[in-house]
Amino acid sequence: MIKKLDHIAVAVKSIDETLSLYTDTLGLKLIKREDVPDQGVKAALIQIGDSEIELLEPLDPNGGVARFLERNGEGMHHICLEVDDVNAELKALGEKGVQLIDKQGRPGLAGLVGFLHPRSLHGVLIELAQKTH
């Protein structure tokens, strides 16, 4: 079951340069920052009410976020929805004809995550996240 909007992710060229805009200028709170090597990104989570903004900087010059930045420049990368059970949601959505990037959940900054292909969702990349913390 989809529970709520978890976060909106923004692809950036430099987390260091961008972070101060969100924390100092907008007054939002940094809650977590780490490298996620299997996704090829540096990531930072910023609290905004009950949701978050995730900044993504590519670690891998050939990875998905790097390719996104090349094609689109900096901007919104994906929307993340919190779910009770990532694997169950991926299976159910796959059975309904949604094209999946991930057939099983994998570790991510937001917990156990799985992505739905934007071709099935009118150009929007959707991440499903099951909180593990």
Q: Please give the number of β-strands.
A: 8
Average pLDDT metric: 94
The gross shape turns out to be: globular
Number of helices: 3
CATH fold topology: 2,3-Dihydroxybiphenyl 1,2-Dioxygenase, domain 1
Tally of discrete structural domains: 1
> Order of helices and strands, N to C?
EHEEEHEHEEE
Span of the ends, CA to CA: 18 Å
The largest β sheet comes out as:
8 strands, mixed
CATH architecture group name = Roll
Strand content: 35-45%
Strand arrangement within the widest β-sheet reads 2-3-4-1-5-8-7-6
Short description:
By secondary structure, the protein is of the alpha+beta class. Helix content is 23%, strand content 43%. It has three helices and eight strands.
Helix and strand arrangement:
Blueprint: E1 2-11, H1 15-25, E2 29-36, E3 41-48, E4 51-58, H2 64-72, E5 75-83, H3 86-95, E6 106-108, E7 111-116, E8 126-130
Parallel strand pairs: 1-4, 5-8
Antiparallel strand pairs: 1-5, 2-3, 3-4, 6-7, 7-8
